[in-house]
Amino acid sequence: MQNHFIKSDKEELDIIFEECEFINAAVSVPIGTLPIHAHSIGKKVFYSFKGQDRKSTDHPILKFMKKVGMYDF
Fold first, then answer.
1. Is residue 53 assigned to a domain?
2. Is residue 14 part of a domain?
3. Out of 10, 12, 29, 45, which could bridge 35 as a Cys pair, Cβ 3.0 to 4.6 Å?
4. What is the tally of structural domains in the chain?
5. Alpha-carbon gap, residue 49 to 15, rounded angstroms
6. 49: burial class by Cβ within 10 Å (0-12, 13-18, 19+)?
7. Dihedral angle at the C-alpha atoms of 17, 61, 23, 18, nearest 10 degrees?
8. 4 located within any domain
């Protein structure tokens, strides 16, 4: 997914956590670093959490991202 996005003409990528309540730490590394790499080449990555209000902070993946520092980036 990363390579395809980076090499494509697309400028934005939306990653939607729809029915996901757990993310393995090994997967969090590429997901967490992709926005930084994308930004360095003029692209943007957005995360959204299906079924959650944009102001809601109770989605398990969002909680994990905040806990491990991914949210800060």
1. yes
2. yes
3. 45
4. 1
5. 9
6. buried
7. -20
8. no
Distance CA 66, CA 1 (A): 23
* Residue 29 counted as domain residue: yes
Alpha-carbon distance of 8 to 11, in angstroms, equals 8
- Token couple for 45: 């990555």
Q: SS3 for the chain, per residue?
A: CHHHHHHCCCCEEEEEECCCCCCCHHHHHHHHHHHHHHHHCCCEEEEEECCCCCCCCCCHHHHHHHHHCHHHC
Per residue in 12-64, pLDDT (tens digit) is 999 888 788 888 888 888 888 899 999 999 999 998 887 655 555 678 888 88
